[in-house]
Design a protein that fits this description.
349 residues; alpha+beta; OB fold (Dihydrolipoamide Acetyltransferase, E2P); seven-stranded mixed beta sheet; six-stranded antiparallel β-barrel; 23 strands
Length: 349
């Protein structure tokens, strides 16, 4: 029991001694050094500043859409037949008139041979009857009948030759094969596509524009389009506007012609900015915004130092972006924050 009391008394004495020593050191001015106080200062840096402006800008609303080829077609056979050869694969470039597939044409070839034989016989009959008419040994009505049979036989040959030409399926224009929907041995019939082909050289952007924005668009108007896989936005010109809205979604299909740009391909996702009016909102250059995960920051210059500040951005206006919260108009931010650190002294160039 005495040992337990001694231990309790000793622990209390140790605690009181620690408090007295701490108070003595504090009164004597012996404060522990903080890491911030002992860290070396950052050198000043010359930077380019950008003012936070709030003058009127063209307000826009983004509408999602897809990049598509102007020319695209589903190639199918004009006559029924078993596929004998399919000479293309997806992603293959083809030229106009190049053979894509061929059908088993033995039946059509036999029909052509029969039609040619009938034509030849009709031609010989016509020559014989014509001579007999001249000699007075045949009548004009017999000649008319033979001439009619000869014309029918010629038409039958032409029809069979056309059908034989349908057994060779060719590319309708220069393009790339995007899908293969049949294979050797399948039965090709009219209405069943064999392959799909697109022209990658001429692209356009298609978007379903809400009814409220329809009046903001006119043919020929150029609008900025942001493609997810491209760093910079592209400019598209409105080439088609659907005359009637889609019954369910109440949207109008709008098509914009795109320039030829490396990396632009059919099927890519994008957003077109449709102007809605004027708006006075604080905005900064896009290059001054620092992206860290899902958060956005800018370096605000205050009292000669750059301070990292969290902001929330909104819509884009060309090379600028709206700042919903975090900074106010009249402040200045570092235009190129790639080498600036928080709290670093800065001087304007």
């Amino acid at each position: 029991m005495n040992s337990i009391r001694f231990a309790q008394v000793s622990s209390r004495h140790v605690a009181w001694i620690a408090i007295l020593v701490s108070a003595f050191l504090t009164g004597a001015g012996c404060k522990p050094a903080s890491p911030a106080a002992t860290a070396p200062g950052l050198p000043p840096m010359l930077v380019e500043l950008a003012g936070v402006e709030s003058h009127g800008l063209t307000a826009t609303e983004e509408v999602v859409g897809t990049v598509r080829a102007k020319l695209r077609a589903a190639v199918e056979a004009k006559s029924a037949g078993r596929i004998e050869a399919l000479l293309v694969v997806p992603a293959q470039l083809v030229k106009q008139g190049q053979t894509i597939a061929s059908l088993d044409a033995r039946e059509i070839k036999a029909r052509l041979d029969s039609a040619q034989a009938v034509r030849d016989q009709a031609t010989r009959d016509l020559e014989r009857i014509s001579k007999l008419v001249k000699d007075g040994a045949s009548t004009a009505s017999e000649l008319d009948a033979v001439q009619a049979r000869q014309r029918v036989s010629v038409a039958a040959v032409s029809e069979a030759e056309t059908m034989l030409g349908h057994a060779r399926i060719v590319a309708p224009f220069d393009g790339v094969i995007t899908r293969k929907l049949a294979d050797v041995g399948d039965l090709a019939t009219p209405g069943r596509p064999l392959v799909e082909i697109e022209d990658p050289a001429h692209l356009r952007f298609e978007a379903d524009v809400p009814e409220a924005l329809r009046d903001r668009l006119e043919l020929g108007v150029k609008l900025p389009i942001r493609i997810s896989s491209l760093k910079d936005s592209v400019e598209g010109a409105v080439s088609e506007i659907a005359p009637a809205a889609e019954a369910v979604s109440r949207t109008y299909l709008v098509k914009l012609d795109l320039p030829v740009i490396a990396g632009l391909r059919a099927g890519q996702f994008g957003r077109v900015s449709v102007p809605t009016g004027e708006a006075a909102v604080p905005h900064v250059p896009m290059g001054s915004v620092v992206q860290r995960g899902q958060l956005e920051y800018v370096y605000v210059v205050d009292a000669g130092k750059a301070h990292l500040r969290l902001i929330r951005t909104g819509k884009r206006f060309g090379g600028d972006v709206e700042v919903v919260s975090g900074i106010n108009a009249g402040e200045h931010v570092v235009a190129d924050p790639s080498k600036v650190q928080d709290g670093q002294p800065v001087e304007a160039k």
